[in-house]
Amino acid sequence: MAEGGESKIEVRGCNVHVRRGGSGAPLLYLHGASGTPMWLPFLDALSEKFDVIAPDHPTFGLSDEPDWLDDIHDMAYFYLDFLEAMGLDGAHVVGQSLGGWIALEMAVRSTQRFRSLTLVGSAGIRIKGKPAADIFMMDPDELTRALLVDEAIIDRMINTELTEEQLDIQIRNKVSTARLGWQPRLFDPSLRKWMHRIDVPTHIVWGDTDRIIPPDYAKEFQGLIGGSSVTMIENSGHLPHVERTEPFVEAVARFISDSAA
Known about the structure:
Helix 7 (216-224) links the parallel strand 7 and strand 8 (229-233). Strands 1-2-4-3-5-6-7-8 form an eight-stranded mixed beta sheet, with helices on both faces. Helix 2 (72-85) packs across helix 3 (98-109) and helix 4 (140-147) packs antiparallel against helix 5. It is 36% helix and 19% strand. It is globular and about 45 Å long. The chain is built from nine helices and eight strands. It has helices at 41-46, 72-85, 98-109, 140-147, 151-158, 164-181, 216-224, 240-243, 245-259, and strands at residues 5-11, 14-21, 26-30, 51-55, 91-96, 114-120, 202-207, 229-233. It is of the alpha/beta class.
């Protein structure tokens, strides 16, 4: 497939829309609630070092809506099947926000095909008294301002007129996120007690000004996952891969090179 190429891959009767580019060790990128609308600059930069595989989750983006998908656990088992179906061994799994939660649910079940785990502003747990922001109660402009720090990017995103198809996908992604994380809000009360099972090198990446999931969660995750390390991305909100692409990619690549090659 050409760099940044797109295809549909059938796994468990579900046609999954996949963007893929680059060469080297496989890197599976699991997107957050907003999806991955295109081959973004951070994916392009990572593809210079890795074989980057970036699927739309089932029920998100341009992927099918399988009748067997009920909750986050189903999504985790699906992606374990996806790794097997794609023949991906020794995969570096990078999950952002909702995608981090999916990656965590995968890892507590089986790390057989993982080489490393990178969590970027991950959902999945809750610190008492410090809940994540309620993204379901925010209008689009309010959410954009909460997600980001860089005013230029915020203004560009707010003032970009979306096509009808893009609006439909935006709505679809929001409904799909609610299916997985409406109650309780974007965390699994049972996840903490199984996180000791994560036995691959783990990197926790956070924006230092994250207003969606507070930076305190980075240290919390570090305490729950043995041997894990933390990188704080300066001047960044919940989407460090978008607004601080260069330091983000450098941190991810350096971790994989140093700890998980």
